């Protein structure tokens, strides 16, 4: 590793996966990495461990799940230097050497990192196709996981926003035992989940402090596929807690690329929320962890507008939730209160709630009426891709935004607000699209046992 006093960008030739360790007495897991011959960078997590965790098959499955997490989470560290070579310590997923991974695992890891780092590469003007090559070897007997006999129930990933709350309440409606689960220590999420009356399951995650030092020294930095990492974390927790389902709340809007590069390459801020990633992750967990572990998104057949319509009926959560991402950072909230009132998430939440609530009700949630603020016009144009690129954020599709604006332009309660008036003529051809966009559609991996049991079925 090199870094000069003139802040030369840190560099390395070799990225090393050292080991993944777990102490069942404390629940602490450690994921260790290194650059070249440098010191370990150790990420720490803490899982809840049930007193009855003694089954040898489940212990072995957890070790495999932790090894998978070790690989996926390495993206946060590798991106700092983009080291061209890799070394893997022997472990439960890779027993036969340090130079390569079994081919299915290597292919999964390379595609997850490359596509999940699409925004990072675009913003930093990098071509990862020439920089990222995970070495592989032909598959062997590794990866023959069987059933663990996991119990019914679901760990529901909670992010503090409306989508995960819709999933939580939909599963309760279907009488599925649920455990709301969060990675991190957000007090806002705890306050939101408290409304449900359910205990919150917390999993601590602490990045290696050396990573911050690398970033401050000028290392490559930017967006990582955090949903992929969280999915791997919850898969570990599900095995520990003898739970069959891991449920995320990614909807079909996540399939839309944020933009295309000049050579036509799609860049999707939400790649790790896409169905393609979900299916790739499900494939490796079934092969390498446990064949009866199901990881899926409950909202996959819905668009963001349809999810928000469902959430508009969950009024108990309206005063406490937040979809503003400035609230959710590893170093704590960057705003006071629940909404900043000036970001893509605040704008889209306003836009998507408006057809189902009054202006006063939406203003009470977000803190101001963004649709009556001329300064917000450009931001709403970006959401709708009206002369601007869609923002790098987890928001609905541009088509949904245009259809929502068209609906509001015909609604006496909203049509006279400044932003709605200014954009009305540009979206009038979308007036009939919203009803179609609100209907469940498209492929999904929701268990068939839930057919007819969800509020939108």
Gap between N and C termini, in Å?
55 Å
The helix/strand series, from N terminus to C terminus, equals EEEHHEEHHEEHEHEHHEEEHEHHHHHHH
Largest sheet: 9 strands, mixed
Radius of gyration: 22 Å
Strand order of the largest sheet: 4-1-2-3-9-8-7-10-13
Q: Give the beta-strand count.
A: 13
Mean pLDDT: 92
Global shape: globular
Q: Which regions are unreliable across 5 or more consecutive residues at pLDDT < 50?
A: 1-6
Going by helix content, strand content and strand pairing, the class is alpha/beta
Q: Provide the β-strand percentage band.
A: 5-15%
What's the tally of helices?
16
Summarize the amount of helix as a percent range. Answer: 25-40%
Question: What do you see in this structure?
Answer:
The chain has 457 residues and is α/β, with parallel strands linked by helices. Helices cover 35% and strands 14% of the residues. The chain is built from 16 helices and 13 strands. The protein has helices at residues 56-73, 75-78, 103-116, 118-123, 162-173, 187-194, 209-216, 226-240, 275-288, 304-312, 344-353, 359-366, 377-384, 398-409, 418-427, 434-437; strands at 14-23, 28-35, 41-46, 85-88, 101-102, 136-137, 151-157, 178-183, 201-206, 243-248, 259-260, 266-267, 294-297. The strands form three sheets. It has a nine-stranded mixed sheet with strand order 4-1-2-3-9-8-7-10-13, sandwiched between helices. Strands 5-6 form a two-stranded parallel sheet. Helix 1 (56-73) runs antiparallel to helix 8 (226-240), helix 5 crosses helix 10 and helix 13 (377-384) packs across helix 14. The N and C termini lie far apart (55 Å).
